[in-house]
Amino acid sequence: MSFWTNKRVIVTGGAGFLGRVVVAQLKAKGCRHITIPRSAQCDLRKTSAIRKLYAQAKPDVIIHLAAVVGGIGANRENPGKFFYDNLIMGVELMEQARQMGIPKFAAIGTICAYPKFCPVPFKEDNIWNGYPEETNAPYGLAKKMLLVQSQAYRQQYDFNSIYLLPVNLYGPGDNFSLTSSHVIPALIRKCVEAKARGDKQIVVWGTGKATREFLYVDDAARGIILAAEKYNSSEPVNLGAGFEISIKKLVELIVRLTKFKGEIVWDKTKPDGQPRRCLNTARAYKEFGFKAKMPFETGLKRTIAWYEQNTSA
Description:
The chain is an alpha/beta fold. The protein contains ten helices and twelve strands. The strands form four sheets. It has a six-stranded parallel sheet, sandwiched between helices. Strands 6-9 form a two-stranded parallel sheet. Helix 5 (137-157) links the parallel strand 4 (104-108) and strand 5 (161-166). Helix 1 packs across helix 7, helix 4 (79-99) runs parallel beside helix 5 (137-157) and helix 6 (183-197) packs across helix 10. The longest helix has 21 residues, at 79-99. The radius of gyration is 19 Å and the shape is globular. The model has no long low-confidence stretch (mean pLDDT 95).
């Protein structure tokens, strides 16, 4: 019998990009009692709504994925909202879980919590050695407070919570909005639309020198579920694929895979964001046996195919 067979689980953000995959994988493991709160009916910033949710669902495990999130542009336009909504939501969810004696809380943090200038690959022990990259610092710091809360609550109340740090995600079902999406879906959409219009060029933010690491959504979901099942410590854990690619090479790869034949124009007046991002993933493998499986180019092809199929429908 699976660990999850008789567990009652709340997945906040369970209808989102990552959440849908987490829920599908939980169901595949035999989990029959999954509650997915929807923001229209349950405002996770409100104590009363959270207490009502917990009382009705009676969860054994909470997987907190919900976040107000976006790319560099969205972060620059909404720093106050991104800080408040993410902070209050996470803090209240964990506090009420502690008060109501819920056995396990898995908090999903963000790579944006790391310092702007951090030795590469990022190790969990370096998370406090500097201020985050300015464009997403309010979001990164709000989510980082869940690590402080997790460690404080374990120390004082023996509350079993964990804190995971996934790197940038991508995959089928991602957010492809040009105003709020992250770099991979934004580039895919730009290339596909430019190709359809017969444009001679696409404009890309920054210099292309920054580097990023990307984790396929199915791998991320598998890592989160493994940690929720097997990991019981408040030391933060990276979830990544263990590779680094420059934005320039990423753009060239997406241009090739989408078969866009035009020119790439770099708008150097726009920010690059954090200079480098690449995670040390040894702790996840040691603690709960997680290692990413999806080859990057294969994952990109699947993501592009999904977008093309779902925009032409």
